[in-house]
């Protein structure tokens, strides 16, 4: 068997997977593309094992380890994607860049300057000590905890 045929097929599989990882925006399609890349590596391992006529068949043994790692990766990856989809409503990778959770009660609207503790003459008053902010934040966290199932 010529080594060129499986090597060319592995290169095509790997390039297809690489394109899928770089161009796709859906997390499940990205995981499928990673699987294509791992299968290209497996094909190379088996092809070189056959070509070298290794008595220990180390290429095939490494392929079994790679398949086991790929199965674990896809299981954990799908669990993460499903959890993100339940929380966010989308598995779009562009929307997942902002993964930090923000508490709506802790954020102050841009035009609200009433409780900033400034009299307007540059001196701070005692009303801006932050105790109201802490009470609002804890009430917001309690409300958020009640809302989550």
UniProtKB/TrEMBL annotation:
- This enzyme's EC code(s): 7.1.1.-
What stretches pass through the bilayer?
61-85
Region Disordered, residue ranges? 95-149
Q: Which GO terms describe its molecular function?
A: NADH dehydrogenase (quinone) (non-electrogenic) activity
Q: Which reaction does it catalyse?
A: a quinone + NADH + 5 H(+)(in) = a quinol + NAD(+) + 4 H(+)(out)
> Where is there biased composition of kind Acidic residues?
101-121
Annotated Gene3D superfamilies: 1.10.287.3510
Keyword Nucleus, does the record have it?
no
**UniProt keyword annotation of DNA-binding present:** no
Subunit arrangement? NDH-1 is composed of 14 different subunits. Subunits NuoA, H, J, K, L, M, N constitute the membrane sector of the complex.
What is the protein named?
NADH-quinone oxidoreductase subunit K
The protein's organism comes out as Streptomyces laculatispora
Q: What is the lineage of its organism?
A: Bacteria, Bacillati, Actinomycetota, Actinomycetes, Kitasatosporales
């Amino acid at each position: 068997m010529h080594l060129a045929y499986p090597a060319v097929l592995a290169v095509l599989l790997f390039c297809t997977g690489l394109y899928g990882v770089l161009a796709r925006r859906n997390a499940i399609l990205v995981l499928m593309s990673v699987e294509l890349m791992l299968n290209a590596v497996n094909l190379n391992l088996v092809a070189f094992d056959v070509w070298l006529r290794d008595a220990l068949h180390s290429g095939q043994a490494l392929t079994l380890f790679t398949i086991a790692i790929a199965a674990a990766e896809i299981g954990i990856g799908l669990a993460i994607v499903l959890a993100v989809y339940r929380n966010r409503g989308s598995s779009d990778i562009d929307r997942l860049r902002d993964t930090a959770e923000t508490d709506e009660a802790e954020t102050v609207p841009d035009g609200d300057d009433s409780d900033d503790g400034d009299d307007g003459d540059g001196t701070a008053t005692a009303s801006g000590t932050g105790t109201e902010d802490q009470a609002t934040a804890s009430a917001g966290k309690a409300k958020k905890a009640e809302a989550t199932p």
